[in-house]
Design a protein that fits this description.
Length: 340
């Protein structure tokens, strides 16, 4: 009987340990394990000791290492990568050199293998399914914890042209600590609003402001679009402007495009807009980059012709005053000459 109880106890202990490893996991390392491939930045190592990536039901924490670009934070203060019960990932990681990375196209299967692709404006396509890619964890999504029949290989997408093997990479820095490379809250992650500025709900790399909220003419409207943290790769951005009146009618629209590398400012003037009557309006802007990444902005402004009418009258008054002074001077001079 004692032997039976002892065996049952050992079994329960092992079962508990197995369940624990499925609910909180790390990335498997060794050989090619831990690497994904970016078509713009090269190999990304999710298995470094100092990166300390942890996967659990609440999401992914820790850092991945990108040679030549530094650390990528999987749980930044204004983003974070979440794990659904079925294994689908969502949300954004942050690299101070490459900007935001969208993990909504990545999943963890029942074998703990990462599959699919993450995307970003500067990192390009980060694939977990290529010949030498293999990011695997001992974590299992809740809905998949009891099934583990899929192949443990992450190689489903074929070889990437010109793709080296991870073994040929320079090793990750053995004594580097992620927090010395990227602070917990970087300037890009704690942006404060300027007047007339609305930020996208998730991404903070594009901002829109206008010089003045009240103008005398729509042709005096000046919009400034600031691009930040776009990484080192030139990124084409399509920009769509429109002006909407108080009734919701679109009275003007145009499309522009720029190529941004790291950062830039686009100044847009509306000199080609037909004169609009006084009233309340909204400037709308939509940006599109990396095929499917969109941001939307709206800034209200007012047209009041009276605000621009005072300045000419000031100059007219100054001119009249000057003429009066000159006339007074000449009259006084003539009187002095006559007295002489």
């Amino acid at each position: 009987m004692k032997k039976y109880i002892y065996c049952v106890g050992i079994y329960l202990l092992l079962a508990t340990g197995a369940a624990a490893s499925e609910t909180v996991g790390t990335v498997t390392t060794g050989g090619n394990e831990g690497f994904a491939w970016s078509d713009q930045a090269g190999w990304v190592n999710f298995g470094t000791a100092n990166g300390a990536i942890t996967i659990q039901d609440s999401g992914i924490t820790g850092y991945a290492w990108i040679p030549n670009y530094g650390w990528m934070n999987m749980n930044p203060s204004n983003g974070g990568v979440s794990v659904a019960a079925g294994g689908a990932l969502s949300g954004y990681a942050w690299s101070s050199a490459l900007g935001w990375v969208n993990f909504s196209g990545v999943s963890i299967n029942s074998s703990g293998v990462f599959t699919g692709q993450a995307t970003g404006a500067s990192i390009g396509t980060l694939t977990f399914s290529c010949t030498n890619c293999s990011v695997k964890t001992d974590y299992r999504p809740p809905a998949l914890e009891t099934t583990s029949t899929e192949s443990s290989s992450g190689s489903s997408g074929g070889a990437t042209p010109g793709e080296p093997t991870p073994a040929s990479l320079l090793p990750s820095p053995a004594d580097a600590v992620p927090f010395t490379t990227e602070p917990t809250t970087s300037p890009e992650e704690s942006v404060t609003d300027a007047e007339g500025e609305l930020l996208p709900s998730e991404l903070f790399d594009i901002r829109l402001v206008i010089d003045r909220r009240t103008i005398s003419s729509v042709q005096k409207l000046v919009a400034r679009t600031t691009f930040e943290s776009f990484g080192r790769v030139p990124t084409p951005v399509d920009i769509f402007f429109s002006i909407v009146d108080a009734s919701g009618n679109e009275v003007y629209s145009k499309k522009d495009n720029v190529v941004i590398q790291t950062e830039g400012v686009l100044v847009t003037r509306f000199a080609d807009v037909a004169e609009l009557p006084d009233g309340e309006y909204v400037l709308r802007m939509r940006t599109l980059y990396n095929v499917d990444v969109e941001d939307f902005f709206e800034i209200p402004f007012t047209i009041n012709a009276a605000t621009g009418g005072g300045l000419p009258w000031v100059w007219i008054a100054v001119g009249i005053f000057g003429l009066v002074l000159l006339a007074t001077f000449f009259i006084a001079k003539r009187r002095m000459i006559k007295k002489v």
